[in-house]
């Protein structure tokens, strides 16, 4: 790839990129600031999208319009698979919008009516590079899995359980499947890398702030390694 797009939702998730990427120019689109620069011999464009699917969608389209040929997401998520502990890594194999629900019309949960694709596959090559990086940096603490996205901070045991049973997801967050849909619409490869900041249960709100910085840093380290290997 000549130009790699990188997105995070929150300040913490992009802090280390700001420290390491040599920024050459900035562009403002839709009120978001996009940083273009060089990192490890690659052209990079990165942006803080803000939280949620609409922010992520607009940000992804702008990244693509600014020349990104693939999009990587770095950030934190709530663990859904009970095997995951705080700090562990999930590399997306696909992503689903778990809050898309037209079940009264007979559509399965997560299915976007009248379109072919609702579970957006991540790019196999990016998944491979990301999971090799993740396994090397965090041996025994990383897995590939389905990323579930919705405009909800998940914070109850019942909800986590139902997400796991309905979608067999690895983790829950608020942007990935939105980014994935925009990438699919544009024919652009993507992968999401998330480190677990909480277990999306009752304790989530307590864990979240405490573990977000550490988890964001874990995710950044993987992005760093991916960029070296692309
Ligand atoms: N991001 C980090 N933790 C999350 C959670 N529990 N739900 C949704 N998004 C998250």
Automatic annotation (TrEMBL):
EC supergroup of this enzyme: hydrolase
Keyword set, alphabetical order: Amino-acid biosynthesis, Hydrolase, Methionine biosynthesis
Domain Nucleoside phosphorylase residue range list: 3-228
Entry's EC annotation: 3.2.2.9
InterPro entries linked: MTA_SAH_Nsdase, Nucleoside_phosphorylase_d, Nucleoside_phosphorylase_sf
One GO location term (cellular component): cytosol
Pfam family, one: PNP_UDP_1
One GO MF term attached to the UniProt entry: methylthioadenosine nucleosidase activity
One Gene Ontology biological process: nucleoside catabolic process
Metabolic or biological pathway: Amino-acid biosynthesis; L-methionine biosynthesis via salvage pathway; S-methyl-5-thio-alpha-D-ribose 1-phosphate from S-methyl-5'-thioadenosine (hydrolase route): step 1/2
PANTHER family per UniProt: 5'-METHYLTHIOADENOSINE/S-ADENOSYLHOMOCYSTEINE NUCLEOSIDASE, 5'-METHYLTHIOADENOSINE_S-ADENOSYLHOMOCYSTEINE NUCLEOSIDASE
NCBIfam families: MTA_SAH-Nsdase, PRK05584.1
Record protein name field: adenosylhomocysteine nucleosidase
Organism: Paenibacillus beijingensis
Lineage: Bacteria, Bacillati, Bacillota, Bacilli, Bacillales
């Amino acid at each position: 790839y000549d130009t790699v797009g990188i997105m995070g939702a929150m300040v913490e998730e992009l802090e280390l990129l700001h420290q390491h990427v040599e920024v050459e120019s900035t562009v403002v689109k839709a009120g978001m600031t996009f940083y273009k620069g060089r990192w490890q011999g690659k052209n990079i464009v990165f942006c803080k999208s803000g939280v949620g699917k609409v922010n992520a969608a607009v940000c992804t389209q702008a990244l693509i319009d600014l020349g990104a040929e693939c999009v990587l997401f770095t950030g934190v998520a709530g663990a859904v698979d009970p095997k995951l502990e705080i700090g562990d890594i999930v590399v997306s194999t696909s992503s689903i919008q778990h809050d898309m629900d037209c079940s009264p019309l007979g559509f399965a949960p997560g299915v976007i009516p009248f379109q072919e694709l609702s579970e957006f596959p991540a790019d196999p090559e990016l998944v491979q590079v990301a999971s090799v990086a993740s396994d090397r940096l965090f041996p025994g603490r990383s897995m590939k899995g389905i990323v579930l996205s919705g405009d909800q901070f998940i914070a109850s045991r019942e909800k986590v359980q139902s997400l796991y049973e309905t979608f067999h997801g690895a983790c829950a967050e608020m942007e990935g499947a939105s980014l994935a849909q925009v990438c699919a619409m544009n024919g652009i490869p993507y992968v999401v890398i998330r480190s677990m900041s909480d277990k999306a249960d009752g304790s989530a709100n307590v864990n979240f702030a405490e573990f977000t910085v550490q988890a964001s840093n874990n995710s950044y380290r993987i992005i760093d390694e991916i960029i070296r290997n692309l």
